[in-house]
Amino acid sequence: MPEETSQRMDRLESHLAHIEHQVEQLNGVVIEQGKLLDRLKKEVQRQSTAMQTLELERIKSNAQKPPHYQ
Question: Looking at the 3D structure of the chain, how many domains does it have?
Answer without folding.
Answer: 1
